[in-house]
TrEMBL record:
Name of protein: ABC transporter permease
Ranges of residues in domain ABC transmembrane type-2: 23-266
A family per Pfam: ABC2_membrane_3
Subcellular localization: Membrane
Membrane topology qualifier: Multi-pass membrane protein
Protein source organism: Agromyces seonyuensis
GO BP, sorted A to Z: response to antibiotic
A GO CC annotation given for this chain: ATP-binding cassette (ABC) transporter complex
Keywords from the UniProt entry: Antibiotic resistance, Membrane, Transmembrane, Transmembrane helix
Transmembrane portions of the chain: 25-43, 63-84, 113-134, 146-167, 174-195, 238-260
Length: 267
C-alpha cells in the first residue's frame, strides 16, 4: 500500500481514538468553547465602542481569539502530548515494526487535527452566533481569508506539535512540559489579553511565534475594519500573516523529520 493510502487509513483511526479520550477532548476541543462562553457571559454588560452609535460585544471580540487558540490547542498541545505518550507506552515502537512509514503516521495525525479543528471551529461559530448574538461575516472574501488562515495555521500547528513531541522525556511529563508553553503563548499573543495593550517587548516576542499571526488573521476576518488601527503596524498585514505562518510551516516540517523517532534515543 502507498504512503498516502496508509496515511488516509490512519486518519479515521486517529480521529476515533481522539474522541474516545475525554480529557483530551475537553482540554483541546471544548476548552475554547468554554472560554468563549465564560468571557462572553462575564463581560456581557460591556462593549467596545467604535464610534458614535457603533460598538461590538465582548463575544464579538473574543471569537477570533478563541478560534486561534483552538487551532493551537488542537495542533500543538494535542499532538505533542499524544505522540509523547504513544512513544512512552510503546505504541510507536510497535508501529515502527510495521510497514507504516513516518510520513503516513504524520498524515494520520494531521488529518485528525484537521477534522477535529473544523468541528471545533464550526461549534465555536454556532455558539457565538446563536447563544451570544455574534454577527458573522457575510462577504465571501472574509470567508476565503478565514479558510486559508485556518488551513495554514492548522497545518503549521500540527507540524510544530509533532516536532515538540520529542521534548518531554516521557508521557507522564508531557502535559507538564507542553501546556505551560501553550499557555504562555496564548497570554502574549492576544488571545486572553488585548494585544495592543501589551508592552512593546512582549508584542515583539509574540511576533516570533505563529499564534500571534493566526490570531491576527482571525481578527481580520471577524472584527470591524476599525480594529486594524490597533495592530502594531496599523493594518491587518495579511501578507505578513501568510509569510510568518509559511516560515513556521517549513520549520515545523523540518523539525518533525529531524526529531521524530519510533523510540526515544535514550530508551
Amino acid at each position: 500500500m502507498s504512503t498516502a493510502i496508509l496515511g488516509a487509513a490512519r486518519v479515521g483511526y486517529e480521529t476515533k481514538g481522539y474522541f474516545r479520550t475525554w480529557d483530551q477532548v475537553f482540554f483541546t476541543f471544548l476548552f475554547p468553547v468554554l472560554m468563549l462562553a465564560i468571557f462572553a457571559s462575564a463581560f456581557s454588560s460591556q462593549s467596545i465602542e467604535l464610534g458614535p452609535g457603533q460598538s461590538i460585544t465582548m463575544a464579538d471580540y473574543y471569537l477570533p481569539a478563541m478560534l486561534a487558540a483552538g487551532i493551537l490547542l488542537s495542533g500543538v498541545q494535542n499532538l505533542a502530548v499524544d505522540i509523547a505518550t504513544e512513544k512512552s507506552d510503546g505504541t510507536l515502537k510497535r508501529l515502527g515494526g510495521t510497514p507504516l512509514a513516518p510520513t503516513s503516521y504524520f498524515i494520520g495525525k494531521i488529518g485528525q487535527v484537521f477534522i477535529t479543528g473544523v468541528l471545533q471551529a464550526a461549534l465555536l461559530l454556532v455558539v457565538a452566533s446563536l447563544a451570544f448574538g455574534v454577527t458573522l461575516p457575510s462577504d465571501p472574501g472574509s470567508w476565503m481569508t478565514f479558510a486559508w488562515v485556518f488551513v495554514l495555521g492548522t497545518t503549521t500547528s500540527a507540524l510544530i506539535g509533532i516536532g515538540l513531541s520529542s521534548l518531554p522525556r516521557n508521557g507522564k511529563s508531557a502535559t507538564a512540559v507542553i501546556v505551560p508553553i501553550v499557555l504562555v503563548l496564548q497570554f502574549i499573543s492576544g488571545v486572553y489579553l488585548q494585544f495592543s495593550a501589551l508592552p512593546e517587548w512582549m508584542q515583539n516576542l509574540a511576533s516570533l511565534f505563529p499564534l500571534k499571526w493566526i490570531a491576527q488573521g482571525m481578527r481580520a476576518v471577524f472584527l470591524p475594519e476599525e480594529f486594524a488601527a490597533m495592530e502594531p503596524s496599523g493594518a491587518w498585514d495579511l501578507g505578513w500573516v501568510a509569510v510568518a505562518l509559511g516560515i513556521w510551516l517549513v520549520a515545523g516540517l523540518v523539525l518533525s523529520r529531524l526529531t521524530f523517532r519510533w523510540i526515544r534515543r535514550d530508551a
